[in-house]
Amino acid sequence: MTAAALPLVIQGGMGVAVSNWTLARAVSRAGQLGVVSGTAIDDVFVRRLQDGDVCGSIRRALEHFPLPDVAAEILKRFHRPAGMPEGEPYKALPMYRQAVSALREQITMASNFVEVWLAKEGHDGIVGINLLTKVQMPNLASLYGAMLAGVDYVLMGAGIPREIPGALDAMAEGRAASLKLDVEGALPGETHLITFDPAKHLAAPPQLKRPMFLAIVSANSLAMTLARKANGKVDGFVVEGWTAGGHNAPPRGEMKLNEYGEPIYGERDSVDLAKLAELGLPFWIAGGVSSPGGLAAARAAGAQGIQVGTLFAFSDDSGILPHLKAEVLAGVNAGKAVVFTDAIASPTGYPFKLVRLEGLVQQDDTRIRNCDLGYLRSAYRREDGRLDYRCSAEPIDTFVKKGGTVEGTAGKRCLCNGLLATIGLGQRRDDDVVEPPLMTSGDELQTMQGFLAGRASYRATDVLDYLLSESCPTELPAAVTYEAPVAS
Ligand SMILES: Cc1cc2nc3c(=O)[nH]c(=O)nc-3n(C[C@H](O)[C@H](O)[C@H](O)COP(=O)(O)O)c2cc1C
Q1: 35 within 8 A of 12, measured Cβ to Cβ
Q2: Where are the alpha helices (DSSP H) in 8-101?
Q3: Does residue 282 surpass a pLDDT of 80?
Q4: Fewest CB within 10 A of the end CB: N or C in the chain?
Q5: How far is the centre of ligand 1, averaged over its atoms, from the C-alpha of 246 (Å)?
Q6: Which atom of ligand 1 lies closest to the CA of 320?
Q7: Does residue 156 lie within any of the structural domains?
Q8: Is the model's pLDDT at 153 over the cut of 70?
Q9: Separation of 128 CA from ligand 1 center, angstroms?
C-alpha cells in the first residue's frame, strides 16, 4: 500500500509495546496500517538494551538515528551485551517533568525513532504511531523521533489532541512546538507549556514528512471540535466505542455503575456515523467490529474501514509474554476469560479494561506501591507556585503529602509497572520480587472463540486474512448508530 491510499484495517496502537515493531511490521508488510505504541517506549527501549538487544535490532536501527553521538552515549549507558545479571533491577530513566535534560529528550526521540524505523524496515508499507494525549510530557519528543524515522500516521486519543496537528506542522518544518500542560490547581490565567525545539538537538533540523493525523474519538461533539478548532489539519477519525481495549472514554453525564462496578454506557454515548460523515473526513470504527461482517458493516455505514486491537494483541506477533497469551487464549477457548471495565483502576481517571481469569497472576492491592516510571503523573501547582507531580497509584502517604486524598488512591493500579511486566520487562524489587503483569483487552476477548476455532495460537496475518475475507455486513456495535441519509 502506498502512503496515499487509505487502509481498510488499522491495527490499533496498544501500549505498552503490545503493538511493538514486530506486530506493526507484520501488518504493514501485509498491506494494512501497522501501528506501534510510543507510550513509555523510552523505558521499554532502555530495558531491551539492558537485556542485551540479543538480535541486534536496536543497534541496527540506532545506526540510522541522525544523532550518532547520542546513539553512542545511549549504548554506553544502557547496553549490556550479556544481558541483566540475575536479581539486578533495571537501570531506570529519570521520570518526565515539564522540562527535562537534552539527553532525556534524546532518549525519548531515539526510542520512538527505533520503534518506527524497525516497523518500516525492508518494505514500503505504511506505519503509524499511537500516543495517549493525556501522557503529555514526553509526547512532542516522541512524535519528533517518530517523524525522523518517517512515520506515516499519528493516532491519538485519551484526551483532546487539539494542539497535536499544529505541533506536527511545526516540527515537520523544523520549528519548535508547544503544548499546554494541564496543571491541577493552576491559577486563572496561568499557562504552563511543554516545548520541544528540534534546533536544540540538530544544528539544521531537516524538513520532514508531516504524518497524517487521526484523532481517536468517542463522541460527535469531540470530532466536530477537532475538525473545526484544532490548530492544524485533522486528517480523519477513529471512532472508538466502549468495548475497545485499554482505556475507554467515561460515559456521558454522571458515572453510574452496574452491579459489578462497571460503568454503564447508553444511547447518549453512541456516535452518529451519518453526522460524523458530514465532516467530510475519512473514519474508521474501533471496538467490536473485528470480523469480516464488521468490516463490511463499517464500510456500508460510510467508514473507510476498521481499527482492530484485541485480535492482534493476542497474536504471536505482539509484545505480550507468550506464556500469558497462551494462558489467556486457553481461558478463551474454555469460555472462562472475562473482561472487566474497571472504573477506578487507572490513575488517569478513565475506565480501564482488565482481563479476569482464574489462576492468572496479576497486579492487585497487595503490591507494595512504588512510583518510578511516572508516565501517568499529573502536574499540580504547589502553594509556593512551583510545579510538582503526583499519581494516585504512588505510595499513599506521598500522594497525600502532595495534596491528594486517601480515598483518591483506593483501587488504583500502577499501569506503568504492570504493563511493562506484561511484555516481560517487569522491574525487579527487593527480595527478588518481580513486578506482576496487568493485562488489558477489549470485550472482544469474550467472543473470539469463533475466530480462534480451537487454535492455541495464530499470527497477525491470520487476523488480516480473516478480516479481509468476503462477508455480508453484520450488525454494528451499540457504540455507533447509523441511519442512511434519505436522498432528497
Ligand atoms: C492490549 C490493548 C492495549 C491497548 N492500548 C491502547 C493504547 O495504548 N492506546 C490506544 O489508543 N488504544 C489502545 N487500545 C485500543 C486499540 O487500539 C483498539 O482501538 C481497540 O482495541 C479496538 O477494539 P477491539 O479490541 O474490539 O478490536 C488497546 C487495546 C488493547 C487490546
Answers
A1: yes
A2: 21-29, 41-50, 57-62, 68-78
A3: yes
A4: C
A5: 5
A6: 1
A7: yes
A8: yes
A9: 14
Say if ligand 1 is within 6 A of residue 319 CB.
Answer: no
Is residue 247 a part of any domain in this protein?
yes
Residue nearest to atom 6 of ligand 1 (CA): 14
Tell me: the pLDDT tens digits for 66-115? Answer: 999 999 999 999 999 999 998 899 999 999 999 999 999 999 999 999 99
Are 40 and 416 in contact by the 8 Å Cβ rule? The answer is: yes
The alpha carbon of 313 and the centre of ligand 1 are apart by a number of angstroms equal to: 8
C-alpha cell of 33?
496500517
Establish if 364 belongs to a structural domain: no
> Can you list the pairs that 260-263 forms with residues at least 24 positions away whose Cβ atoms lie under 8 Å?
260/340, 261/342, 261/343, 262/340, 262/341, 262/342, 262/343, 262/351, 263/341, 263/343, 263/351
Mutation test residue for ligand 1: of 11, 14, 134, 218, the one with most atoms within 8 Å of CB:
14
- Kindly give the number of the ligand 1 atom that is closest to the alpha carbon of 309: 21
Cα(406) to ligand 1 centroid in Å equals 30
Does residue 243 have its Cβ closer than 6 Å to ligand 1? yes
CATH number at residue 292: 3.20.20
For the Cβ of 12 lying below 6 angstroms from any atom of ligand 1, the answer is yes
- Which pLDDT value is given to residue 488? 63
| 245 CA to centre of ligand 1 in angstroms | 4
Distance of CA 39 from the midpoint of ligand 1 (Å)? 12
Residue 343 placed within a domain: no
pLDDT digits (tens, 9 = 90+) for 156-209: 998 899 999 999 999 999 999 999 999 999 999 999 999 999 999 999 999 999
Domains in the chain: how many in total?
Answer: 1
Structure pTM?
0.97
Q: Which residues pair with 200 in a beta bridge?
A: none
Specify whether the CB–CB gap between 246 and 440 falls below 8 A. yes
Query: To the nearest whole number, what is the mean pLDDT of the chain?
Result: 95
Residue 109 carries which DSSP code? H
- Asked if the model's pLDDT at residue 269 lies above 70, the reply is yes
CB 119 within 8 A of CB 36: yes
Q: Whose CA is nearest to atom 5 of ligand 1?
A: 14
Parent domain of 280: 9-319+453-481
Query: What distance in angstroms lies between residue 207's CA and the mean position of ligand 1's atoms?
Result: 32
Is ligand 1 within 6 A of the CB of residue 129? no
Given a cut of 70, whether residue 287 has pLDDT beyond it is yes
Is the torsion defined by CA of 250, 252, 257, 262 positive or negative? negative
